[in-house]
Amino acid sequence: MQLCDLLTLHGPATATQLAARLNESSGATSYHLRQLEKYGFVEEDPGRGSGRERWWRRVPGRITIEGRVDDEQSPAARDATRLVLNEFNRAKQARIQQWRDTYEQWPREWADSSVESSNHLRMTAAEFAELGAAIDAVITSWVARTRDRPAAEVADLADVEVQWYSYPVGDPPDEARQAPRGSGPQPVQNK
Question: pTM, whole model, 2 decimals?
Fold first, then answer.
């Protein structure tokens, strides 16, 4: 997750550069980059590097983790799932905190355009799914509209992260506690 975040926020880099940022060995970062490449999260940047120097870039798109930890998974799989989910959320919270710590240093129009919001709705599971699809469609349209724009084309360009959470609150209904469970969280890369 940290490698994906660094490549997203700072652009293409070598395993050695990423290792220095993370206080890791270049061997460790190189191994993890190859694993991320295997599953389609990063790729070699063909426009950079020469000879043995490999530059890596994040594959465009978002990372979505769907599902939940499942009792039918092995204990090791449940632990690995929790580890990935916790790291994914820790990194998002760290970026939110970075914004909160530095927003006064940004031009006013950027600070005024930021949003932290919480809304509570009363809805059915079908309506909940419909809401998620509608929000996803809006965000996806903006991703398509703004993807791969070079900074030279537009003045006052900055990277923006959009996070939104939706989840039921309170205790689950009694019948849901006994319901069969699915296969657990699955990391999904949408492009």
Answer: 0.67
Nearby residues of 159 by Cβ (< 8 Å), 6 or more positions away: 9
Under a CB-based contact definition with an 8 Å cutoff, are residues 63 and 191 in contact?
no
DSSP 8-state code for residue 171: P
| CA gap 180, 156 in Å, rounded | 51
Q: What is the dihedral of CA 178, 180, 184, 188, to 10 degrees?
A: -120
E strands, 48-102, in order:
55-58, 62-66
Yes or no: say if 186 and 63 are a contact pair by the CB < 8 Å rule. Answer: no
Domain boundaries, the chain: 1-59
Count, in order, helices (H) and strands (E) of the chain: 7, 5
Does 162 have pLDDT greater than 70?
yes
Percentage of the chain lying above the pLDDT 70 cut = 85
Distances 126 to 17, 129, 132 between C-alpha atoms, Å: 46, 5, 10
Closest C-alpha among 126, 102, 122 to residue 114? 102
What is the CATH T-level fold of the domain 1-59, as seen in this structure?
Answer: Arc Repressor Mutant, subunit A (1.10.10)
The candidate with the shortest Cα–Cα distance to 11, out of 189, 151, 184, 109, is 151
Residue 139: half-sphere exposure toward Cβ, Cα within 13 Å: 16
Angle among Cα 56, 13, 80 to the nearest 5 degrees reads 65
